[in-house]
Write a structure and sequence with these properties.
The chain is mainly alpha-helical and about 325 residues long. The protein has nine helices and two strands. The chain has helices at about 5-30, 50-60, 140, 145-155, 170-175, 195-200, 225-235, 285-295, 310-320; strands at about 250-255, 280. It has a two-stranded antiparallel ribbon with strand order 1-2. The longest helix is centred in the first third of the chain and has 27 residues, at about 5-30. Mean pLDDT is about 75; it is low at about 125-210 and about 315-330.
């Protein structure tokens, strides 16, 4: 009987210390974080999300997306997330102060989605040099007519000063036609190899350095745009043949076209395309889910989390150019 009191006190103390260490102290450290702002109070991060984004988070959790995708970028010393271009800095508790609950994820069968919204193309720029909706290749695609007429009216290539022989030294012509041809039948030489590859119908390697996966293919919407997310949710294998992601076709509706095609119609090809006179459009839950993924963006710099870009900017200053002897100066 004399040993029962110390036993119960020991058990109670063990649970009490565990509760204090795992609940009270973390809540005291990070439980009252506020959004970060500058001195003027204008650059505020993070901001409360809209109703569609909040509903999209519930759709995201209800369909089990957090079982295969994480939403946390690990630090450089504990993983290669930053090297994979999944973010410029590690995730911090301040990133999740408006998320209830924070969908950090269970495992990574797919890529991390903490910054999937930061990879979306900007509206004021050409979103993808190889995308079917890219406005950049259109002038090049409409220009072969004058070139063909100029070739028809010009003398033989041996004496013709026509600029059709210029593609022999143009990088855009190398991507579209061999340089040995004196007068290629393709589009005229473009200013960039990516535009020439898009005009020739060949897919580019990648739309941007920050989007390493999956590879952009010709004919699809710009990578990581809202239209691209809808196509990826409806038919994942149409973008990545090796994907084991399930198809969420129940979030979309197939309906007959009444007057004109809807602006939300999915750009599908092959066996995924609907029959003639029909279209596939997203439901409200699908729009909310895409709005939620487009809002996932942890690229804003934080004081407590050093970004990789700042570290890269400091490293060249710390390592000067090599000395004349071939060894870096110390």
């Amino acid at each position: 009987m004399k040993g029962l009191a110390p036993l119960f006190l020991g058990i109670f103390g063990t649970f009490a210390f565990s509760w204090v260490g795992l609940t009270v102290i973390p809540n005291w450290q990070i439980g009252h974080l506020n959004p970060q702002s500058d001195e003027e109070g204008t650059d505020i991060y993070p901001m409360p999300q809209s109703g569609m984004v909040t509903r999209g988070a519930r759709v995201y959790a209800a369909n089990g997306c957090n079982y295969c995708h994480s939403q946390q970028v690990r630090a450089e010393y504990s993983g290669a997330d930053i090297e994979r271009k999944w973010g410029d800095r590690r995730s911090a508790p301040r990133d999740y102060i408006f998320e209830r609950p924070a969908l950090l994820g269970k495992m990574r069968m797919g890529q991390d989605l903490a910054n999937i919204g930061a990879r979306a193309p900007k509206e004021e720029e050409s979103p993808s040099p190889a995308g079917g909706a890219s406005p950049a290749p259109q002038p090049a695609a409409a220009s072969p007519g004058p070139v063909a007429s100029a070739k028809a009216a010009s003398p033989p290539p041996a004496t013709s000063p026509s600029p059709a022989t210029a593609p022999a030294t143009s990088p855009g012509a190398i991507a579209s036609k061999p340089p040995t041809s004196p007068a290629p039948a393709g589009p005229p030489p473009s200013k960039s190899p990516a535009a020439a590859a898009a005009a020739a119908g060949t897919p580019a390697a990648s739309p941007s350095p920050s989007a390493p996966w999956p590879e952009q293919t010709a004919g699809l919407p710009p990578m990581y745009s809202a239209a691209w997310h809808h196509v990826h949710l409806y038919s994942p294998r149409s973008i990545n043949l090796d994907s084991n992601m399930p198809s969420y076709r129940f979030l979309y509706q197939t309906r007959r076209i009444s007057d004109a095609r809807s602006s939300d119609t999915l750009q599908l090809t092959g066996s995924d395309a609907p029959p003639e006179g029909w279209e596939i459009v997203p439901t409200y839950d699908a729009k909310c889910l895409v709005a939620y993924m487009m809002a996932l963006n942890q690229s804003h710099p934080l004081k407590e989390a050093r970004s990789a870009g700042a570290a890269a900017a400091v490293s060249p200053a710390a390592s000067p150019s090599p000395a004349p002897g071939g060894q870096p100066a110390k």
